[in-house]
Amino acid sequence: MYKNLKQVLSLYGVAINKPYYISLGNPKHWFPEIPFRMDFYTFFVCIDGEITIDVDNKAHIIHANGFLISAPSTAIRFRNASKNFKYKLLLFEKNFLIKNLSNPFILEKNLLFQNDTYSIINANTASINGLEDILSYLERKSKDQKEFTDEIIRTIIFNLLLEIAEIKQQNMTDNSGVSENASTVYFKFRKLILENILNNKSVQFYADKLNVSNKYLIEIVKKASEKTPHEIINEALMKEAYVLLGEPALNITEIAFRLQFNSVSAFGRFFKKNANISPLAYRKKENLKA
């Protein structure tokens, strides 16, 4: 169900052979109406007008000078955009960015994705202008076909992310109580969930995979995110459910068993407990016909 960078862009007539994509100042022209889940990073800044989007099934309105930064596994659904809406966009694959780096969690540890897979931030005009300048430079350099172009692109993207992290830091709570080793366990836990959520929903499974006790995992996850491991697992499972419910070819029974529920009623109870609405009612409400 993940949509990789090439797959997503090909749906809208954009053919790329690079692990990144930049679009500057274009009007809205390719946003799909159904939810989809991405396996790449997204930086999306509104430069004029506004757009309404669902991110992990939570509605947000992004105005001019607002931006979205999201990690792989984020579920997106575009709703409505004003007639004067324009945006700038950067998409990139994680493996491209962290090539030759020893720390696979560098993006998480620079404050961008410590507590969730995305952030929506409103910035001042000067900050947005600075981010736009970096995007423009990135776009120019991406047209080069030289020996060190990829390395230059990586460096520019890192600079952009650090600027974004600096803006975000002003709105963050302090997680300094989490040690370096504990934060690494937490990020590994989130990575394992992305890889195993369709087959394993037990906290004990993830504790065993990380070679830690159930109690220790609960403790560090709570400190790092103010959530329990069970809550994070349920959020990931709901994200899968929302995306699958957006697939017209799948009926509720197929979705329930794809998510490893032993019955349709068990899936229905789980979904209603977390969404306050049944799967069928959700589809009807969102006009997602099976």
Automatic annotation (TrEMBL):
Start and end residues of each HTH araC/xylS-type domain: 187-285
Matches recorded under Gene3D superfamilies: Homeodomain-like, Jelly Rolls
Record bears the keyword Nucleotidyltransferase: no
Single GO molecular function: DNA-binding transcription factor activity
Alphabetically ordered keywords of this record: DNA-binding, Transcription, Transcription regulation
SUPFAM superfamilies associated with the record: Homeodomain-like, Regulatory protein AraC
Protein name: AraC family transcriptional regulator
